[in-house]
Amino acid sequence: MEKSSNKVFVPAKVLSHEVDCASRIKPFYLQCDLQEAAYAGSAFCGAGYDVLRPLGLAWVLNRIHVHIEAMPLWGDDLRIETWSRAKTGPLWHRNFRVRRGDEVLVEATSAWTVLDLANRSIFRGMPPFREDSHCEEDTLPFCTKLIVPEGVAMEPAGSHTPLFSEIDSNNHVNNCFYTQWAFDALPFDYLTEHSLKDVEINYFAEVAPGMKVDFRLGREGDVWYFCGVAEDIVRFLVRIEF
Questions:
Q1: What percent of the chain has pLDDT over 90?
Q2: Which secondary-structure segment (H or E) carries 35?
Q3: What is the pLDDT of residue 6?
Q4: Nearest to residue 100, comparing CAs of 163, 33, 40?
Q5: What distance in Å separates the CA atoms of residue 23 and residue 28, rounded to the nearest whole number?
Q6: Inter-residue contact 166 to 174 (CB < 8 Å)
Q7: What are phi and psi of 177, to 5 degrees?
Q8: CB 143 within 8 A of CB 199
Q9: 36, 72, 89, 106: least surrounded by Cβ within 10 Å?
Q10: In the 8-state DSSP scheme, what is residue 73?
Q11: Element at 182 (helix H, strand E)
Q12: Is the pTM of this model over 0.90?
């Protein structure tokens, strides 16, 4: 891992089990790579896992927007650049850029909150964080709140109760699995014939072990919407554009 004055550069390699039938990295694993880069970035800013956990705090993803110029392929050596962009209210913004050599393949922006693990609510205080580590450079505009456009019918698309493998150290479904759920709900033939352009996710409420989630899927041309509802609460909404 490399560092500059306010950025972290994390290497990654696309492995055989991470790709689809066209040798493209699966969106789930791309988001896993971004998540690991974010952990490295938060540690660089003085607010990593080892610092927050003893305080009963943890970073949780609130929103993410990933724009794809070209999907990384099996065997690619990647370099993920990440930096803290700014803080607005309870949201901490983090940007990403994924390169293969000098080529930019992916740009992303995200918004995070700090979770108080004891009461499962947003921590409103100020965690340890080097304010001078913010970098005023944008990849994409700050994430906005997603809504399903009027006229898009959200139809039932199955249900799921989280598996042991989907629960992370914060005792809820890891954010990367929402991406996997969304793509697994799309038609196989459609995914093989179309190239991914954009993924946006809003996380509204956590999904805990044992919680049954009802999925709903809608479409507007080459844009798909996917959401999960549990205990009468919309837990997340995904927008996928091809």
A1: 93
A2: helix 27-44
A3: 87
A4: 33
A5: 14
A6: yes
A7: -70, -25
A8: no
A9: 89
A10: B
A11: helix 175-184
A12: yes
